[in-house]
Amino acid sequence: MTADDDAPILPRIRPEIASLPVYRQGRQAGEDAFKLSSNENPFEPLTGVLEAVHAASELNRYPDALATRLRERLAARFGVAVDAVHVGAGSVSLIAQLILAAAGPGDEVVFAWRSFEAYPGLIRVAGATAVPVPLTDDARHDLPAMAAAVTDRTRVILVCSPNNPTGPVVTHDEFAAFLDAVPADVMVILDEAYAEFVTAPDAVDGLRVLGLLDRPNVVALRTFSKAYGLAALRVGYAIGHPRVLDAARATMIPLSVTAQAQAAALASLDHESALLERVRVIAERRDRLAAGLRDAGWRIPDAQGNFVWLAAGEHTEAFATAFEEEGIMVRPFPGDGIRVSVGEEESVDRVLRIAASVVETLPQGHPGRGLA
Ligand SMILES: *Cc1c(COP(=O)(O)O)cnc(C)c1O
Fold first, then answer.
1. DSSP code of 241?
2. 161 CB less than 6 Å from ligand 1?
3. Is 115 near ligand 1, meaning CB less than 6 Å away?
4. Mind listing the pLDDT tens digit for each residue in 322-334?
5. Which of 25, 132, 252, 346 lies 20 to 30 A from 150 at CA?
6. What pLDDT, on the 0 to 100 scale, is given for residue 131?
7. What is the count of structural domains for the chain?
């Protein structure tokens, strides 16, 4: 008797879903380790934000399904109509909604690769076909190649700026030229999860694009998870044409944005200057980290988010183990590279020390090595 004879009969699953890798959470950090594997904000929540979450205590009541107060607040802040704002349980859920709304079986979704690891799975779940377009040698989006990858079947293009996990932004001019090159009826999702950390003056800014260029096919996505430090609560937002956002709203799981998440996001906007001061500290720490890594011999792509990219290639897993043994949890992408989040101030020297020791083992001419 083989093991298969014992196996219970399970319900049939769509084959493209059954073949997806099973989700595994990254390893949790030990006691005195630094968790630099998920691009989280190292600062604890502000007291005012915690108080707002506690005050939202009617746990027996459903939340406002359309997050009206938060949408009104964001609309006023960005000078758009309330219907031009849509709030979701993290911006990942907004990406899922928009793809589901626009792309199904037989349709294509174009995106840069390597980029946000959630994209391929979300495309597959919608039943659409993923069309990854390789990054350039300096780890940037190759927008001309992405425009050239568009076919009659393309329904959505994902642009991630700054690009997770490599770091560089798309510039405003590049993005404007890209929009001119793609059909006006293809949805372009500009995923700006790290927008608040950007210091490059020529970077694209989705809200400016929407205001200046009047492009109803563009949707800009932002989140409270990273800069505002609310990753646990799950809240992000989309800004775009109300009719496009209506389509996303039609696909959403109702009532998935909790009252606590809405309250925390509103309180974060009340305390925005204090939070953005922390973002400034993290961006400055990132620049110091990137400079130190370059001094040590690493070739680091322009880092505009709250993370840096080490193109360790075939050494990725060994180097990630070296970091973990020294109490630094990083995010390895096997065969490609390691993403290290900008965390606590005390983590910086440790990251630099380990990175300096492992870079020595890379041969001259390796893509992870600087030219110096
Ligand atoms: C973190 C991240 C998101 C969204 O995170 P949420 O917590 O779901 O808001 C979206 N896109 C990219 C590229 C990210 O890195």
1. -
2. no
3. no
4. 999 999 999 999 9
5. 252
6. 98
7. 2
